[in-house]
Amino acid sequence: EESSAWVSDAAEWIDENVVTLLTPPRERRDPTFDSFLGNREVEESVNRSNVRIRPGIGLLDGENPDYDIRFSARIHLPRSENRVNLIIENFEEDENVLEEFRTSRFDQTLREQETERSIQVQADLRRTARAKLTGKIGMSFRPEPVPKMELRLRTWYTGEGIATRLTPAGFWDGDDGFGLKARYEIETSTSTNWLHRLSTSTLWSESSEGVDAGQTYSIYFRPSKRRAYSVHIGCSGKLEPYQDIDLVSLRFASRRLIHSNWIYLEVEPGVQFPRERDWKETPFFNLQLEFILGALD
Known about the structure:
This protein is mainly β. The chain has helices at 2-22, 34-37, 40-44, and strands spanning 50-60, 66-76, 84-89, 117-127, 131-141, 145-159, 162-173, 177-188, 194-205, 211-224, 227-240, 244-259, 263-274, 282-293.
């Protein structure tokens, strides 16, 4: 009976940890760090619903402190085999051409983030070994309701120590009309702790003044499951109707698990050189707490 109980316990342990046992070490990443690491494909594929609450403060030289609380909820709808999600957010990141800068208070968007609230249904329409087609439909509140929809294709390739991702998307917005955006990433990993990424994004809509673009080079270092650091060098500007740069930015970010597996602290100092300030160096400092309610697999 003792032997039978031991076998039963061992089988249960293997069943609970089979993913960890079979996954190569370089792929073992805590999903709660994926927002920080910028891998939306992994972040969006977690198997459980979760709510994220992110109070933060941003300090920009010459400006008043900017306080905000960002809220997002991803709820897997029943009987959908985790293919359909209800997404509720009180901020907008989809139109940021410098997507690596998650806590930036100097975002290059078509509208001010503070006025954006949205509720959307996202569905995985088709998936293959190297591609996924996703659709979104919902409403934004600015504060009046505005319908919006998006069709996005994400393709990826993973080789030995290198990965690439191409993500084109078409969208329609009741205010901005039709638009197109795309993001291309090249990612290399020299070890389990280091990650390098070059990211290029473009954005056009009927209401924009031409084509916006941004490029970012990022280095991530993760010494443990509780801490991660990154350095980002980026610029944004126009591709059409003329080629021009309007912002250069350098920032350092630190993310740390400070309680259990659901409270994180992110600190982000840096300096920006915006054209609107005649390229004058503009120091900034962002501080953000993140509370994650709901387990992530």
